[in-house]
Design brief:
Blueprint lengths: L15 H21 L6 H33 L1 H22 L5 H7 L3 H13 L5 H18 L6 H4 L4 H19 L8 H25 L8 H29 L1 H4 L5 H14 L5 H18 L15
Helix pairs in contact: 1-4, 1-10, 1-12, 2-3, 2-9, 2-10, 3-8, 3-9, 4-12, 5-8, 6-13
């Protein structure tokens, strides 16, 4: 699937950690840019045009695979709809809504809760039970989430005055975690078919919500800021990040690739400080440290059990 990008340079497409670092940078830039244009580019418009544009660009390359995979796609239309709704439509729209109300740093740090929600969904859907170590790790991570959401003020738990943007962000992560958990049931179709179908169908599912957004008075102003924003979100966090991530996982495996995703928070915090003037606070560091410590405890390989030397290809 990567032959279409071969002309971009063999060295880049055989440098997994560079590809994964760029993926993290593009995703971090999406959150920071989303915060910057939060009240200029409406959230549903941004999400709809982002995924429609990305799907149209990749459609020509995917067409032969779509034709071959069409019977399988039709047979699994329900599951693909759910994957498109949770991983494309809901997640990104809620992310952009979140950035209207909360700082980019907060939204970025809360994105690190993905493994916690995935563990919850895999338990609910597939009965994958947690051992005590995993349970304790999840509790520690949730404590970190609480510190971030409360902004270090535990009295917020008593007054229940949470930032609306933080709540949107947590719902967005729960949606994306459901998408991630359901991927194990993904039909066996070509990756280009899967990406094109989920992106395109996700954009179509957003269309009625986009119409409601326009009816509410929030229309898209096609000025230079809007155009540059849409170009960025279509090309970098959508198209390039998806293919860079798939290629990085293909080269080194999912287990070795996963920790690089925490670069999203590091890159994002730096970008938010430089371009948005946001200031990191002590509670940011404390909450993030608790989240990472909990994930480390929950996912640490037990003593005496060796990890496989290589992961299967993505």
């Amino acid at each position: 699937m990567f032959s279409i990008f071969g002309r971009l340079g063999g060295r880049l497409f055989n440098a997994p950690y560079v590809l994964l670092a760029l993926t993290a940078l593009f995703w971090a830039g999406n959150s920071v840019l989303g915060r910057y244009v939060a009240w200029h580019v409406p959230p549903v418009a941004s999400g709809t045009i982002r995924w429609a544009g990305a799907a149209l660009i990749v459609f020509g390359f995917a067409l032969p695979y779509l034709r071959a995979d069409w019977p399988t796609i039709r047979a699994h239309a329900g599951l693909l709809t759910l994957l498109s709704l949770t991983g494309i439509s809901a997640f990104n729209t809620l992310l952009y809504y979140s950035l209207q109300y909360t700082e980019a740093i907060n939204a970025l740090l809360l994105q690190s809760t993905g493994p916690l929600f995935i563990a919850g969904w895999t338990f609910l859907l597939f009965g994958e039970r947690l051992i005590l170590r995993q349970f304790l790790g999840l509790l520690l991570s949730f404590a970190g989430v609480g510190v971030i959401v409360c902004r270090g003020d535990l009295t917020a738990l008593l007054t229940v005055r949470f930032n609306l943007g933080d709540i949107y962000m947590l719902v967005a992560m729960a949606s994306y975690a459901l998408y991630s958990a359901l991927l194990k049931k993904k039909p066996k179709i070509h990756p280009l078919s899967f990406v094109t179908v989920t992106m395109g169908w996700g954009a179509i599912l957003l269309t009625p919500v986009y119409a409601l957004e326009i009816a509410s008075g929030r229309s898209l102003a096609f000025d230079l800021t809007t155009v540059l924003t849409l170009v960025y979100v279509i090309v970098f966090p959508s198209l390039l990040a998806h293919f860079f991530f798939y290629r990085g996982v293909e080269l080194i495996g999912a287990n070795r690739a996963a920790p690089t995703m925490y670069l999203v928070q590091i890159f994002g915090a730096a970008l938010a400080i430089i371009f948005l003037g946001e200031q990191p606070q002590l509670y940011h560091g404390l909450g993030y440290a608790l989240v990472l410590a909990g994930i480390f405890i929950a996912t640490r390989q037990p003593d005496g059990i060796k990890k496989p030397s290589e992961d299967p290809p993505a």
